[in-house]
Amino acid sequence: MARMDRIERWLETGEDFPWNEREILRYLGHRGQEIPENVETLMAECKRELEQAASARSVWKEYPLKIAGHVLDMAFVQTKSENLEKNLKDCERVLVFGATLGSGVDLLLRRYSRIQMSRAVILQAAAAAMLETYCDWKNEALQREYREKGWYMRPRFSPGYGDFPLECQRGIGEALELNKRIGVTLTDSLLMAPSKSVTAVMGLSRKPSVCSVQGCEACGKTDCVYRRQT
Predict the structure, then answer these.
(1) Which among 49, 51, 43 is positioned nearest to 17, based on CA atoms?
(2) Is the peptide bond before 18 cis (omega within 30 degrees of 0)?
(3) Do residues 123 and 47 lie in contact, with contact meaning Cβ atoms separated by under 8 Å?
(4) Which domains, and CATH codes, for the chain?
(5) With DSSP H G I counted as helix, E B as strand and the rest as coil, what are the percentages for the chain, rounded to 5?
(6) Whole-angstrom Cα distance, residue 184 to residue 195?
(7) How far apart are CA 108 and CA 104, in angstroms?
(8) Where are the alpha helices (DSSP H) in the chain?
(9) Between helices 117-147 and 103-115, what is the axis angle to 10°?
């Protein structure tokens, strides 16, 4: 069964989530060494717990885009970002996007942080990989929808990546009504709660592009322990 169908069936019926094992290991800092059997067993248990605890939800909204003097005006926020401007080249509009795995995952993480740290570490990594896979699935669906309308969608780009200011998180939160629509709030330090949540901007252009900048490839922090190997 295609991964897209599997995610939809997980959401609707609770069937197995299509895990990306490689991403889980990357978040754990794995560099190709042999994985002990007890760790593999613990990973399998963590995945099952997350499948039961997660309640994935997402929201998005379309806005016009204007770029003048290297200022990106997306209606809900104005900012300067060389990385994001490059990502939005030839775009006329943007989709602002938010997603979360829900508060049940945070409860799970807090519980094991108190009683079993080894499990909490693996849960953190697996939850991050789960959120990434869910966002990929939702973005692929949006890509198809907008392609039918004659738009080409650029990869998602989140505040905090490269030089895209984290402060833009506030404008995104207000534009999407994150708290009201999917139960996500922002702390004073601009962290999201539930913690396994994400926001992003995705450009819309009438021109096709081979742009593949996303995730680690878009981030200038080359010494990050979680960086994807390319």
Answers:
(1) 51
(2) no
(3) no
(4) 3-218 (3.40.109.40)
(5) 45, 20, 35
(6) 9
(7) 6
(8) 3-13, 21-27, 37-53, 82-87, 103-115, 117-147, 168-176, 178-182
(9) 160
At 51-89, the pLDDT tens digits run 999 999 999 999 999 999 999 999 999 999 999 999 999
Which residues lie below 8 Å from residue 20, measured CB to CB, with a gap of 6+? 129, 132, 133
* Sign, Cα dihedral of 139, 144, 148, 150: positive
Measured CA to CA, the distance from residue 230 to residue 215 in angstroms comes to 11
- The string of pLDDT tens digits covering residues 123-132 is 999 999 999 9
Complete DSSP assignment for 100-152: E--HHHHHHHHHHHHH-HHHHHHHHHHHHHHHHHHHHHHHHHHHHHHHTTT-E
Q: Is 94 left (phi over 0), alpha (psi -120 to 50) or beta?
A: beta
- Single-letter amino acid code for the residue at 127: A
In the structure encoding, which two tokens stand for residue 189, read together?
């330090």
Q: Is the pTM of this model over 0.90?
A: no
Contacts of 32 (CB under 8 A, 6+ apart): none
Which residue type occupies 199? T
Is 104 exposed, middle or buried, given 0-12, 13-18 or 19+ CB atoms closer than 10 A? middle
CB contact at 8 A, 97 and 139: yes
